[in-house]
Write a structure and sequence with these properties.
globular, about 40% strand, alpha+beta, 8 strands, about 140 residues, 2,3-Dihydroxybiphenyl 1,2-Dioxygenase, domain 1, eight-stranded mixed β-sheet
Length: about 140
């Protein structure tokens, strides 16, 4: 099962003010902006940043009913997910389901950039939500 996961693709951070967070990451940590956009699927403004060899996604919700808004309301700003890169999302999800792992939805989510995501329910992994990602940026 472990061999299915190639490594960490992104760390997703829920923030209340994406502009302020973007500036803080750049000024304080020297991050490089990769992409600024919006996700209609997740109802967030987002920014992907490179920090060394790693990529972080900053997410500011624009809908109070979005999962990111609910996360901030319940837990405050912070790490909302850890994204794990996989080569074969369907195969990985199937194997994990066979092992008894629950996901937040029945089907993977396909994003306009060509990536596909499946979220492991946080109760399965000690309160941490892991996203399995095929074709990350």
């Amino acid at each position: 099962m472990i061999n299915m996961i190639k490594g960490i693709a992104y760390v997703g951070i829920a923030v209340k003010d994406i502009q302020q967070a973007r500036e803080r990451f750049k000024e304080k940590l020297g991050s490089e902006i990769i992409r600024i956009g919006e996700s209609e699927i997740d109802k967030v403004k987002n920014t992907y940043l490179r920090l060394g060899e790693d990529i972080f996604e900053l997410m500011e919700p624009y809908d109070p009913e979005s999962p990111v808004a609910k996360f901030i309301e319940k837990r405050g700003e912070g790490i909302q997910y850890i994204g794990l890169e996989v080569e074969d999302l369907n195969g990985t999800v199937s194997s994990l389901r066979d092992a008894g792992i629950r996901f937040t939805s029945d089907e993977p989510i396909k994003y306009p950039d060509g990536s596909r995501w499946a979220f492991i329910h946080p109760k399965e992994m000690y309160g941490v939500m892991f996203a399995l990602i095929e074709n990350p940026i």
